[in-house]
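Bug #77: duplicate submission created two jobs. Keeping one. Sequence:
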Amino acid sequence: MQTQAIDPRPAQSSDRWLFGPAPDLVLGCGLGYAWIFLALAVLDVRFVEAIPAGLLPLALLVSATPHYGATLLRVYEQRESRRAYALFSIGATAVLAASFLVSLQYLALGSWLMTIYFNWNPWHYGGQNYGLAVMFLRRRGVEITPLAKRLLWASFILSAVLAIVEMNGLAPGAIYAPVGDQASAQSFGPFYRFISIGFAPSVQQSLTSVGLIAYVGCLLGAAVLLLRRCSLSDLGPSAALVATQSLWFVIPAASRIWGVFDDWVPLGGQHFNYAFIWIAVGHSVQYLWITTYYAKKTERFSGFPRYYVQCLLAGSMIWSFPALLFAPGVLGTVGYNDGLFLLIATVANLHHFVLDGAIWKLRDNKIASVLIRKSEPIADGEPTREVGPRWFRPIVWVVGAVCVLTFILGTWEREVGFRQAVRRADYDRVEQAGQRLSWIGQQDATIHRYLAGLAKARGYPEDAIRQYERSLQIREHPDAWFELGVIHASLGDRIAAREAFEGAYRLNPVPVRLVLRLSQTLIETGQFARAREVLKEGLARHPRHPELVEQLRKANAQQDAAGTLGGAEGDRVVTGYPVRGSSLDSPARSGSDKT
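Kept job's structure:
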């Protein structure tokens, strides 16, 4: 929630809290996350092992998903709201929906949208904390001077900027968004890539130093000005929000920029995506806390359980329904774990940012009357005309319930059905997980590659071929093509092996073992010119590699024997290369030799 403050009437002392000191400080001011941070710091990897990353999406389901739904209900449930925010509820939504459809085919657009989402996210969190800090001051009747307000606002802006600087380095930085399994860009096949500004480490450190000095200066200036007009107790909740913002962004960004506490779970880069999911949970709980309070003031509020379930169902639809509709083999071409989920997350969050920035402004008298001034339940305005005919709402809630179930099933199958089953080498359970994920549009090429490798190791080449081919239908990967070629070669199908190796080479021509395998099958199938071309390209990448030199000598000899060399004398010069080493593990082998 992003808010912009005004000067409404002072609040009475009985209105200092929304739900009371404990729930407001724990849920609204972020002290709940402070406990999570402390547990991560003390228990370290034991915390991660006790609550594995694969199950954290369930925590997001019960917190983040309804927080998106709360915004949707606020904007779309009543005709009055839809009309009031038509530019955003209709115009911006149409633009983002069109962008989603285009991005399914043009990955560059999806990458740019994702980059905007990642960079916007820290300020979205910061804007919500700033708005709540101002709200608590106003509820306490604190007069905030324009300078104090600007300094406080600048401190939240700077905290977000520090996170953005850390994220946009030459080396991949921490991603300040809960993207789950897709935090790092895939190397092959369809994917969406974060487009970093590319700050050099020295530039990042300089910008961070300047930013921290400015950040501390703004906070001190705001505190001095505010304490002239209020007590420490009046400042308490707002100070807690400042501390939460610092714990979410300032401290983690600075620690990673300078490489301190790198082995500490809540701050280190290795587990940052895990830690940030808990930050997202804290942000979402905070949002539900404030939206629930606002909803209570409306005439149609019928209790928190009903309100929460409606938020959960509405939020689930924007996450799970597109995954079902645009799964490969339905209307889409990008696999769930190969970019579809990330694209859905990008567009859903951008939509949320736009709507959120429109509907939560303290300069709106209706908002201010609820969040700052004591008020009676607010009227819903003109007739409470709901979305669609009477039969429409039950259908929406049924679809939402199905989406909740698919989200739970997908999370469970990826963690328990795949990851934990892999540790046990349980082929049947992994295969079952792959089938169930395909039912809900969440096909995963990695699962089928694993099943193929297991089938190959157990001596079932036909099963391995079937699983590799299924994997390649979801997403092309050089590993799948290469292993498929190895199996075909072992079965004596040289043409199929050559085609598979060509598929791997098209995606990643670097590995020596691939160049050797491909050139060998090319020679065996009489494609001498193509074999020599591949070997020359390999030697250009791995000069004087002994096995490539020997393979090229063989290709020249066999083409000579076939009488088809064509007089290209220069092709023979390579056989005179001095040879270094004798194995694939020699220094001449590239570090990127693995497919």
